[in-house]
């Protein structure tokens, strides 16, 4: 995260420096030439039109930016970067909108419009399915058209478009159809094609989903404790295979999201503990009453080699609830990262030079 922020800073700095040079007094000739080229092109375009509008009087020449424009921009970037590095990468604050967006296994239904005001919608309960888990498919058709009594669902590989499974969706209620498709197929990306008969003609609805391997099982939480300025939440996970894993989860107090937590670690093939940490900067000075909740747990097995895919697994839908230790000792202090602090100091020094 700090490296991305620094790259963005350098790009902005270069852009601002170029703009200042272009608009500066020393570059008056080049800038005037640019205006002349623009005015000539505009005149030619107007001349080619059938009706020529009266030329508008030239407005006042805008004042060039002050010599401190670059310094002001650098100071703003330095301040924004300072706020960014206030929180460690493993524990960042979370708003309700962000908490909604970070839920990683949601399927967003695709609406296929039909003639008139009709709609063809296919809904899945998630986007990523564990290998062998049944895929529940629910489809709805509404409008003034005449629909068939059943729909067909076909699962095919996304690349080769090879058919791997099919099922019939039966009419459950007026306008609603449902059925299940097998996911006992190799992990990867797939297309789900649901075909309906609308006014006697076939209409196909296409959705995307993925099938994930069985990465292992979550086995609950160990007792949370405070270490330094962190609340440590040990999560037990029993992996199927060894590898490098990344665990993320959202920390809640009641219905209030507090932080997005993440931790990367190497795991063997036996049960292990992954320690998520919530920094004092996201917990101090909050009115936390009763228990805390860990929700939307997601674990990824990272690629072992370039070209390998990232595999996903998810914790229980209800998450985990736990009683935190005494949090009064946590302090709302910025995370101490010497490298990030050095970058922030460099930005401030650059800003002071202008």
Folded structure, characterized:
The structure is a single chain. The protein is α+β, with helices and mostly antiparallel strands and 354 residues long. The protein folds into 3 domains: 1-47 and 61-85 and 337-354, no CATH class; 116-212, Immunoglobulin-like, CATH 2.60.40; 215-322, Uncharacterised protein PF16024, DUF4785 (Immunoglobulin-like, Sandwich), CATH 2.60.40.3870. It has 6 helices and 19 strands. The protein has helices at 2-23, 28-47, 69-84, 96-101, 280-283, 338-352; strands at 91-93, 110-113, 119-124, 128-130, 135-142, 150-157, 163-173, 176-181, 188-198, 201-212, 216-221, 225-227, 230-239, 243-253, 256-267, 272-279, 292-301, 311-314, 320-322. The strands form 3 sheets. A 9-stranded mixed sheet has the order 2-3-5-8-7-6-9-10-4, with no helix packed on it. α1 runs antiparallel to α3 (69-84). It is globular, with a radius of gyration of 29 Å. The two termini are 27 Å apart. Mean pLDDT is 80; it is low at 1-6 and 16-60. Residues 313-342 are annotated as: Disordered.
- The ordered H/E elements are HHHEHEEEEEEEEEEEEEEEHEEEH
Quick check: average pLDDT? 80
**Major sheet details:** 9 strands, mixed
What CATH first level of the largest domain would be assigned?
Answer: Mainly Beta
Instruction: Measure the end-to-end span.
Output: 27 Å
CATH architecture of the largest domain: Sandwich
- As for the CATH topology of the largest domain, it is Immunoglobulin-like
Task: Outline the secondary-structure elements.
Blueprint: H1 2-23, H2 28-47, H3 69-84, E1 91-93, H4 96-101, E2 110-113, E3 119-124, E4 128-130, E5 135-142, E6 150-157, E7 163-173, E8 176-181, E9 188-198, E10 201-212, E11 216-221, E12 225-227, E13 230-239, E14 243-253, E15 256-267, E16 272-279, H5 280-283, E17 292-301, E18 311-314, E19 320-322, H6 338-352
Parallel strand pairs: 4-10
Antiparallel strand pairs: 1-15, 2-3, 3-5, 5-8, 6-7, 6-9, 7-8, 9-10, 11-13, 12-13, 13-16, 14-15, 14-17, 17-18, 17-19
Helix pairs in contact: 1-3, 3-6
């Amino acid at each position: 995260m700090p490296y991305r922020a620094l790259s963005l800073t350098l790009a902005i700095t270069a852009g601002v420096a170029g703009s200042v040079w272009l608009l500066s007094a020393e570059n008056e000739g080049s800038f005037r030439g640019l205006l002349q080229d623009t005015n000539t092109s505009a005149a030619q375009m107007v001349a080619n039109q059938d009706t020529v509008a009266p030329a508008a009087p030239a407005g006042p020449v805008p004042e060039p930016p002050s010599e401190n424009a670059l310094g002001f921009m650098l100071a703003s970037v330095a301040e924004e970067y300072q706020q960014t590095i206030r929180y460690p990468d493993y524990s960042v604050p979370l708003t309700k909108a962000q908490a909604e967006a970070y839920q990683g296994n949601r399927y967003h239904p695709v609406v296929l419009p039909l003639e008139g005001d009709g709609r063809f919608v296919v809904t899945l309960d998630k986007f990523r399915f564990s290998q062998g888990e049944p895929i529940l498919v629910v489809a709805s058709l509404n409008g003034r058209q005449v629909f068939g009594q059943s729909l067909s669902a076909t699962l095919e590989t996304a690349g080769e478009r090879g058919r791997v499974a099919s099922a019939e969706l039966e009419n459950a209620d007026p306008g609603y159809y449902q059925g299940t498709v097998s996911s006992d197929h190799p992990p990867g990306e797939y297309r789900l094609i649901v075909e309906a008969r609308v006014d006697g003609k076939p209409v196909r609805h296409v959705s995307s989903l993925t099938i994930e391997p069985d990465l292992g099982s979550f086995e609950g939480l160990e007792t949370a404790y405070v270490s330094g300025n962190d609340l440590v939440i040990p999560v037990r996970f029993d992996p199927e295979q060894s590898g490098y894993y990344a665990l993320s989860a959202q920390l809640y107090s009641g219905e209030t999201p507090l932080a997005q937590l993440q931790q990367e670690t190497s795991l063997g093939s036996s049960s292990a503990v992954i320690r998520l940490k919530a920094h004092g900067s996201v917990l101090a000075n909050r009115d936390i009453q009763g228990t805390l909740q860990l929700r939307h747990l997601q674990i990824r097995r990272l690629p072992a080699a370039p070209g390998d895919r990232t595999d996903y697994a998810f914790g229980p839908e209800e998450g985990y609830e736990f009683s935190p230790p005494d949090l009064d000792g946590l302090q709302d202090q910025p995370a101490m990262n010497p490298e990030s602090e050095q970058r922030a100091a460099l930005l401030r020094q650059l800003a002071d030079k202008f």
